[in-house]
Amino acid sequence: MKKSVLFVVASAIGLFGNEINLELTNLKSTCGSLRIGLFDSKSSFPSIDKVFRGVTLHDVSLNSKYVFKDVPNGVYAVAIFCDENKNGKLDTNFLGVPKEIYGFSNNPKVFGKPSFDDACFELSGSKKIVIEAK
Description:
Elements: H1 2-12, E1 18-25, E2 33-39, E3 53-57, E4 64-71, E5 74-83, E6 102-104, H2 116-119, E7 121-123, E8 127-132
Parallel strand pairs: 1-8
Antiparallel strand pairs: 1-4, 2-3, 2-5, 5-6, 5-7
């Protein structure tokens, strides 16, 4: 009985963490590898080298899924991009417009890269996020 009470209390305060279930749509078959970044602050978003947690998927389909497990309660944003040439960065043209597929949580409709506030969501339990790649 004491173990079940402890589990309920620990879960309620976020000690065991939550899951973020990502559903990624509209990807291209030429994706190469898919970089996914989970960000926990305005100062790091969306710099791929400053992720709270990140992953690279090599087996990518037009609609892919990924789960971040054991994520504590908090405010987060997700950024993705297809690294078609596998150089580890999102390639852009001379105007800064991405030449590779990308996307963000909340699918913000902004010109240029969105702010953390445009893409953030509050996590206080498991959550499903659908990101439509552009």
